[in-house]
## 1
Amino acid sequence: MIIDKRKIWEADSDGKVRISIGFLEKGHRWRRDEVKDIAGDWEDACPCISFKWTSDIDDCDVRISFNGDLSCSEIGTSASDDSDGDHPTMSLGYTSDDALRRRHILHEFGHMLGAKHEHCSPDFPWEFEDKEKVKDEANARAYNNVLKKFNEKYLIYSDFDDKSIMLYPMKANWLKDNPDDPAPEDLKRNYHLSRDDRKYMRKAYHCRVSRPHSPDPWPQPLPQPAPYIQPGPVPYPGGGVYGGMPDWWQDRWGGPKVDQR
């Protein structure tokens, strides 16, 4: 996790960070509900942060649009610099892939809280093969989203976290092979907040702990049921156990045979 300290939202006098959020377009009811539900993972991870959903778009810190195919967001309080009430500060493009929509929402809300892309961390263990990267990506996107570096003094950051929701998928051939570094490897998309995502966002916003019901993407194994134990002898309704009971009762319950000779 890598967070720009200059872009963190200020807390109220009670220590709570309240961010008002609205949607620019009418309709899209199910998508609005989906965004509120999934974005709640950040609130669970950081209880001092509260998203205030409002229909008053003129009084929002963050304005969300569902138009277009791309997903993007202003970084943290940069959203407040955009005074055009008709302009989105976050866009959430549509995809029919449920897991990918989830990733986009968590990723863009991470940006909205001040997080930057994980590979921009000072602790990222590789350098880029610029030509390979630019060959595979549009020039502007490559330089703005991947090859860009930030001044360390403005950052709160963890060790490089390949589980972070803020990590872009990357190909191993985009990364330089250096004998002193780990061998380059493909980096895949993540679909949940990692432990460090939660920990360092709490650190940035001075939150103490996550909510108890905050989901853990790496749950512990469930306890296994106790082994089945064959029950003991079943009393015969006429009284006593096994001895003297008719053969049909012993056959039914698997009890010992009584020699009737």
Note: The chain has a mean pLDDT of 80.
## 2
Amino acid sequence: MMYTKKYLPLLLASIYASGSAFAGTMGEVGCTSVLCAVDAPGGFYLGGTAYYVKPSETGIGMVTDSWLFTSPGGFTARSKPFNPPHRWAGNVKLGYDFPMSANNIEANYLFLENKTHATNDFSNGSIGFGSILFPDATVPPSFGFVSDAQLKYEVDQVDLRVGRKYTDVNHNFSIRPSVGVRYAELKHSLTFAAPGNMISKYDGAGPMVSIEGNYMLAYGIGLVGYFDYGLLAGQSQTNSYVSLAGTNFGFSWPKQDRVVSSITARVGANYSYAFSNAANLTLEAGYQVNEFLNAMDTIRGTIAFDGIQRINGLETNDFGFRGPYISLTVHA
């Protein structure tokens, strides 16, 4: 993906460095009448997750075409939005449980790349074509005209956090609240055969909080739930262009500061197998939803062949993806 090679070594280095530097600073564990921070043997753990997710975007972020049809007593214009398929995405994590402590530190990296190709033409019975991104670009019914476009989403997200695990006296239920830092880079790339494109980028970093719960049923099988929230401060940038009749018409919105909310939620079931008091393997499967609020933009621009080319407006959209996942974690 975009930044796998760039960020993964930094994640690994941060975990090892933090584990060495702070392992001796953890104090005695605490306990309440309900939940206890139980001493754990400690050690490193490594995990990987495969997601089969479908992205979505609000507003006109997934729409390029407007097709005109006759209807009783008049006309009806219909949009032809993209319908991105489920694609594989991934996550890798490396963590360290501090010995004789309920505390841990963890870094993880999530990556996604989803491509969609869509074509539309007048074979659907329409009597006219209009561009949504360039409102005055229209095409009457013509033999051989095809609206050909590709939409690509890219996500790179890095988390670094510390947490503390609390367990009930029967060791059937546990929660792990955590605090940390999140960095995310998002990119929306829409290209069409005119030629032309519409590109939106955002990158930002900020604090995050999370909580994970685990309820053990029997024989190593349990139910899991997870939720996190990050508030990212960064910058967005958007530009587009289209080439018609041998002339390029470009539209550019400058970089601007923006705060984006990042939310993750998942629910599932897991199975844990213990090799020893410290070593175990956990297999987990479930369903996850990720959402970035106000993260992507879409420019609408008037070409104005006989007038002044101008930007009509900038629409800010939410972006997210959801789907099933499966993960494997090994604790040594």
Note: The chain has one domain: 4-59+91-119+149-331.
